[in-house]
Amino acid sequence: MWLTARVLEQRLFAYHFLNGAAAPVETALDAYRNEDGGYGHALEPDLRGPVSQPLHTAHALRVLDEVGCCGGQRVERVCRYLTSVSTADGALPAIHPSQRGYPAAPFVPVVDDPPSDLLATGPVVGLLHGNEVWHAWLFRATDFCWQAVESLEDSHPYEVEAAVAFLDFVPDRPRAEAAADRLGRLVRGQRLAALDPGRLADRPVPSGYAPGEHHFPHDFARSPQSLARAWFTDEEMARSLDHLAAEQQEDGGWPVRWRRWAQAPVLEARPVVTIEALRTLRAYGRFVG
């Protein structure tokens, strides 16, 4: 962490594992905030340039949630930004057209009229509900997420993870549990989770994913409280967590498994992945340190 992480991730690591305070995390995050209430400046490493983007802003909300500061005027400004960049149906696009002219990963399309995207919208709506934030933007965005999640027929791991991020915190719990049960059957039926880490050669990755970009039970159920935990047996989850722990490398960090387009984003993403791995292991009682 001290060798390769940005100041933000160093402050987050200190908060989670070294009894650090939340205020330094907020200060580091403020460097990425723009006057429109959104966040930019490569907070999400795949997108470069100063402009605010939904993906950057979702990342900022995750950070604020982690340190217990996802509320108040800062989040009110974020919701105003989300309103300003929403599509006609009130949800978020993956990439706002303002990204055009700035560097981005080659697999990130920038179009003039982008559609609503569950990957961008689901985690944001879930975080805001989980922090009991109420704003007019949430009403239509929540409706979009329900429609998108309940109509999924042929999906892929990242989309499922976004759906889980929404279902874990949306207020209508009976409806969320029913949707999660259906989604779990889809995950197992379409073999989206690698249930045996020892036999990955027999498990192809989804179309468009990088070689080795497998997803495991712990990627879907990041804590025992997640609705996705019910999708997997105790044995399957234990194997998944054993695999996660074994992935730690000699330098102390965890590898980035998703596609690589340039060296800098990989270096910046590794500390994020490392903190996430440690938090998952701790959530399941596997973290020692």
TrEMBL record:
<protein>
    <recommendedName>
        <fullName>Prenyltransferase</fullName>
    </recommendedName>
</protein>
<dbReference type="InterPro" id="IPR008930">
    <property type="entry name" value="Terpenoid_cyclase/PrenylTrfase"/>
</dbReference>
